[in-house]
Amino acid sequence: MSKFSKKRGKSDPEVSTASLPDIIFMLLFFFMVVTVLRDSELKVSVNTPFASELLKLEEKSLVNYLYIGRPVKKFQDVYGTKPRMQLGDKFADIAEIPLFLEKHKIKVPEAKRPRITSSLRVDGDVTMGIVQDVKTQLRKSGQLKVNYSAKKRPN
Amino acid sequence: MKNEINAGSMADIAFLLLIFFLVTTTIVEDKGITVKLPPWSEEEPDITKLKERNVFSVLVNAQNQILVRGELTRVRELKELAKEFIANPSKREDMAEKPTMAIISLKNDRGTNYRTYLEVYNELKAAYNELWNELSLRKYGVPYTEEMPTAYKREIRGEIPLVISEAEPTNFGEE
């Protein structure tokens, strides 16, 4: 009587594989998302300023990120509220920059090394003192291509 | 009587999850102002005597005030001032002899706000970008973009080279 009920007679009951692609897609999406999230786990609060003369960073594998900002609330008990730098996923001193750059460099094929860019993701309310120290250290390490991360200014 | 698991809703579940993750993730914006830092040298930079008319000095202090060639200026005036200085269309005695000789000198305090510093840098870069664009339109009839032929770009940047020299900051207002 119902138009959805199927009368197939003697066919063997089989588990449908129609949902298999969906499950695979789901897993794919899950892992895609998780890898991005882990990367941007910030321990300092970074609210980059607005600018208009922006340039897009080309290859992501050629970019290393240096974060500068005040520690987020849950780290303030330990690290205070003075601006700090974060390299990778932990707080770091200025002196640790050369090692950080070297660790990134060995993962890049030799031909592409001159194109490595350091992206400085700095909070707008930080004073220039710490930024200057980082810049000086970058210059001493021979990392001269720098990108000041900024947001597109809404018109 | 039904022998099959209903797979019709599977797609919906997958879409739901996809949309959930799409909404919750913040896409990392990989944009910014690209700068080439000068190489480090232990020796004091040799102070070549520059003619005063060729130097466009910009000072930003710990109170985030901007001093351009000795005069208090606001950020939004900076671009026009820099453009006029570099191009010097009216051949004034106190501005750059020619664009290749123009030098922008930028100096800040350690207590300067990063936001202000970047705004100033952005305006100076914008001045150059606009000059390049005007020159490109005049010479080749196309706007200046990063994607244009390298030969054109080199020609334009040779005629108006980007020279922003940054001095060591002074120790004021460090927190």
Main attributes?
heterodimer; A: 155 residues; alpha/beta; Nucleotidyltransferase, domain 5; six-stranded mixed beta sheet; two-stranded parallel ribbon; 4 helices; B: 175 residues; five-stranded mixed beta sheet; 6 strands
Biggest beta sheet attributes of chain B: 5 strands, mixed
Number of strands of chain A: 9
Helix content of chain A: 25-40%
Kindly state the mean pLDDT of chain B as a whole number?
83
Overall shape of chain A: it is elongated
Query: How many domains make up the coordinates of chain A?
Result: 1
Number of helices of chain A: 4
Supply Rg of chain B: 25 Å
Describe the structure.
The complex is a heterodimer of chains A (155) and B (175). Chain A is of the alpha/beta class and 155 residues long. Chain A has 4 helices and 9 strands. In chain A, strand 7, helix 4 and strand 8 form a beta-alpha-beta unit. The mean pLDDT of chain A is 83. Chain B has 175 residues and is an alpha/beta fold. Chain B has a domain of 113 residues. Helix content of chain B is 37%, strand content 15%. In chain B, strand 2 and strand 3 form a beta hairpin. In chain B, helix 2 runs parallel beside helix 3. Chain B is elongated. The mean pLDDT of chain B is 83. Chains A and B meet through helix 1, strand 3, strand 7, helix 4 and strand 8 of A and helix 1, strand 1 and helix 3 of B.
